[in-house]
Amino acid sequence: TGKSKFLIGFSQCTTADAWRKSMDLEMQNELLYYPDFQLIIKDAGNSSKKQVKDINELLAAGIDLLIVSPNESEPLTGIVGDVFKKGIPVILIDRKIESDNYTAFIGGNNYQIGKEAGKYAVQLLNGKGRIVEISGLEGSSPAKERHNGFVEEISKFPGIKIISSLSGEWEVSSAEKVMNDYLELNIPFDLVFAHNDVMALGAYKSYIRKFNTKKAFFIGVDGLPGNSSGIQAVMDRKLDATMLYPTGGSLAISLAANILNNKMVNKENILNTLVIDSINVRAL
């Protein structure tokens, strides 16, 4: 395009959680390498309706490229497709839409993350036990995929069952509450698999409040650094493991640079996971 300055719009579904904040921060840090880029971040506050409005505002601002992390796949498919059909490149990050009207996707393999968590759970339980799952926002692709991958692994062992699947909506307070309510039922279980670390920690908090001691296993997902994060929780032995889930923030900016400079990019950019437990946590 021969332009010297580029305006990039980022429609973030929420910045209420540490993982999303970390994504935003990675983008800001990567931008230091691209002085000709200006980034506008809009926070949809977990509302698909607001996110559609945000994207329309970014279009009105004259963006050259859109980065979007859809709150839910279905409600965002139309607007994202419209942007793409206008000839504005679109990078989807972390969550997909229900069509292939986008330039590039960056995200962890959530199905693989679920499978790795399932394998680890099987190991911890020695092939026999009762699991409580705390899932992310229903309707979000990572929640569906993490669940499916997890179930695929544990279903190989008839002695392991998910006895309850509770929705924690990705939030610490929701997970703490649903766990609290569940503990009132006094149904024994051996392991908690939460779709992210903050929910795992919320559930852990409720559990310790009731039992004062940790007898069940806890597995989370994200593996963020920082003091109230998954890595620290594994070091503190609150969580038995967390599955690394890279945010892809810095990659989104470098991909945007390639796209805007007319370089070829891969449509699918999948970030790898890793099990973080007491064995390798210090090295990380």
Computed over alpha carbons, the radius of gyration is 20 Å
Spans of at least 5 consecutive residues whose pLDDT stays below 50 are none
Question: Helicity range of the residues?
Answer: 40-55%
Count of extended strands: 12
What does this structure look like?
The chain is elongated, with a radius of gyration of 20 Å. Helix 6 (172-183) runs parallel beside helix 7 (197-211). It contains 9 helices and 12 strands. It starts with 5 loop residues before the first strand and ends in a 7-residue tail after the last strand. Strand 8, helix 7 and strand 9 form a beta-alpha-beta unit. By secondary structure, the protein is of the alpha/beta class. The strands form 2 sheets. Strands 2-1-3-4-5-11 form a 6-stranded parallel sheet, sandwiched between helices. It has a 6-stranded mixed sheet with strand order 7-6-8-9-10-12, sandwiched between helices. The mean pLDDT is 95.
In short:
The chain is of the alpha/beta class. The chain has helices at residues 18-31, 48-60, 73-85, 110-125, 141-154, 172-183, 197-211, 230-235, 249-260, and strands spanning 6-12, 37-43, 65-68, 90-93, 104-108, 129-135, 160-167, 191-194, 217-222, 241-244, 268-271, 275-277.
Fold topology:
Layout: E1 6-12, H1 18-31, E2 37-43, H2 48-60, E3 65-68, H3 73-85, E4 90-93, E5 104-108, H4 110-125, E6 129-135, H5 141-154, E7 160-167, H6 172-183, E8 191-194, H7 197-211, E9 217-222, H8 230-235, E10 241-244, H9 249-260, E11 268-271, E12 275-277
Parallel strand pairs: 1-2, 1-3, 3-4, 4-5, 5-11, 6-7, 6-8, 8-9, 9-10
Antiparallel strand pairs: 10-12
